[in-house]
Amino acid sequence: MRLTRYFLPVLKENPAEAQIVSHRYMLRAGMIKQQAAGIYSWLPLGFKVLKRIEEIVHEEQARAGHIPLLMPTLQPADLWRESGRYDDYGQEMLRIKDRQGRDMLYGPTNEEMITDIFRAHVGSYKDLPLTLYHIQWKFRDEMRPRFGVMRGREFLMKDGYNFDLTKEDALHAYNRHLVSYLRTYERMGLQAIPMRADSGPIGGDDTHEFLVLAETGESEVFYDSAVTDISLGARDIAYDDKAQCQAVMEEFTSLYARTDETHDEAAFNAIPEERRKSARGIEVGQIFYFGTKYSDAMGANVVTPDGGKVPVHMGSHGIGVSRLLGAIIEASHDEKGIIWPEGVTPFHCGIVNLKQGDADVDGACEGIYKALKKAGLDPLYDDRDDRAGAKFATMDLIGLPWRITVGPRGLKNGVVELTSRRTGESVEMTAEAAVARVVAIYAGL
Ligand code: 5CA
C-alpha cells in the first residue's frame, strides 16, 4: 500500500478522553473512531489488525479440530427464557422489540442459540465429539465502557462450544481449548496466563481466565512468578491425545495463579515469598465447563451406545478478539508509539522515502516495494512529500516492526537502512539484502 492512496488519519495531539496508552495510540494511529460510548468504527489500520487477529484465531481453532459457523447478532428472547437467563442477565443485556412486538436481544454470548442448533440436528453419540465456534460481534451494555476497545459495549468475540457424551470427554475439550488458546496468544506475541476464576453468568465450576499482565489491567491477580517461566513454544500438540492435553493443562495450571474472585490467602502464602506476586492483568479469554446446565434446561439430549438418552455435556470458550488489540499494545509499545509483534502487524514493513521526487530514491523505493510484494508481503510505502521527521514519527506511531529507509546519501554508497522498531537498531545493507532479510524474518513465523 502506498501511503498517499491509503486512509490513515493520524492525530498529532493526545486525545483527552484516552486514559491508557493502548486507547491513546489506537486513536492517534487512526485505528478506531468512537461512535458512541463503547462503540467504535474500525478504520483501515485497526481493521487490518483485527482481521489478522481473527485469522490467527481461526488457524488455531482449525488445528484443534474445531468447526467454524456463524450465528446472528440478534436473538429471540424466547431461547433465553428456556434457560432462565433472560431474567437473570440484567441490565447488561440490550433488549429490543421488533415491529411485531416480539422480544429480541443483541447477543452478549451464544450458549442458548448453539444449544438450539445442536438439539435441532444432533441426536446421537455417534456425532460426538463436536466443537462449533464463531467470531461474531457481541453487545453488553457495560456500566462503565472504558479504555477504548478494552471494555467496549459492542465487541468482537470468538466463542466456541463443545458437545460431548461424558464429563471426561468434555474435560478433554476444556484442556484442548486451554492448549489451543496458549498457542493463539503466543502467536500474537503475548504471554497469557491461565488463572482460576469465577464463572459469573455463564455458570459451572471449572473455569480459567487467560490474563496478560499489565499495569492498566482491570483484574487483580495473584500468582507464583514461576508460572511466567513456562511457554508452549514450538511443541507439537496432538489435540486428540487426551493425556498430552491434560499434561499441558496441568503444567500451566498447577502453580498458583488466581484472580481476586478465587484468591486464597492461605494457599498463596504457601508459595516461597520471593515468588509471591500480586499484579494487574487484562483478561483476554476464558474457558468454562458447565456440564449439562443448558442441555438439561433446553432438552439437548443424545442417544448413548446402550440405547439410553442423556443430556449432552458442554462447555464454552471465549477469546476477546477486539480487546486483544488493546492488550497487545499495552504489552508492546514505547514512548513513540505501538510496536507490533510480527504475528499481527498490519503491514510487514514500512518503506520511507527520504527524498520524494528524486529519481534514484523514488526508483529504489519502487524496487523495494515491488520486491516485497512479489515475495508475498504487504509493505506500507510512505511516498508522501513530507519531512523525514514526520515520516519517521508516523512509522514509529503505527508500529510496523521493520522499516527500510532510502535516501540519496545511502544510495550513493549502494545502501539503504533496515531498522527494527523494537530495538531501534539500524543496519546498512543493499536494497536486495534488506528485502531478503525482511522476507526471511516473516518466512520464519
Ligand atoms: N460464552 C463465554 C465463553 S464463549 C463468554 O461469554 N465468556 S466471557 O464472558 O468471559 O467473554 C469472553 C471474552 O470476551 C473475555 O475473556 C474478554 O476477553 C472478552 N470481553 C468480555 N467483555 C468484553 C467487553 N465489554 N469488551 C471487550 N471484550 C470483552
Short key terms for the protein model shown above:
alpha+beta, Rossmann fold, 445 residues, BirA Bifunctional Protein, domain 2, nine-stranded mixed sheet, binds 5'-O-(N-(L-cysteinyl)-sulfamoyl)adenosine, five-stranded mixed sheet
Helix/strand layout:
Layout: H1 21-28, E1 32-36, E2 39-42, H2 44-63, E3 67-68, E4 74-76, H3 77-83, H4 85-88, E5 94-97, E6 103-106, H5 111-121, E7 130-139, E8 154-164, H6 167-187, E9 192-196, E10 206-213, E11 219-224, H7 242-253, E12 257-259, H8 265-269, E13 276-291, H9 293-298, E14 301-303, E15 309-311, E16 313-320, H10 321-331, E17 333-334, E18 337-338, E19 349-353, H11 359-374, E20 379-382, H12 388-398, E21 402-406, H13 408-412, E22 416-420, E23 426-429, H14 431-443
Parallel strand pairs: 3-7, 19-20, 19-21
Antiparallel strand pairs: 1-2, 4-6, 5-6, 7-8, 8-16, 9-10, 10-13, 11-12, 11-13, 13-16, 14-15, 17-18, 21-22, 22-23
Helix pairs in contact: 1-10, 2-6, 2-10, 6-7, 11-14
This protein binds 5'-O-(N-(L-cysteinyl)-sulfamoyl)adenosine.
Descriptive report:
The protein is 34% helix and 27% strand. The protein has 445 residues and is α+β, with helices and mostly antiparallel strands. It has two domains: 3-338, BirA Bifunctional Protein, domain 2 (2-Layer Sandwich), CATH 3.30.930.10; 349-443, Anticodon-binding domain (Rossmann fold). The strands form six sheets. Strands 3, 7, 8, 9, 10, 11, 12, 13 and 16 form a nine-stranded mixed β-sheet that branches. It has a five-stranded mixed β-sheet with strand order 20-19-21-22-23, sandwiched between helices. A three-stranded antiparallel β-sheet has the order 4-6-5. A hairpin with a 5-residue loop joins strand 14 and strand 15. Helix 1 packs across helix 10 and helix 2 packs across helix 6. 5'-O-(N-(L-cysteinyl)-sulfamoyl)adenosine is lined by residues 109, 111, 140, 142, 151-152, 155, 157, 159, 202, 283-286, 316-318, 320, 322-323.
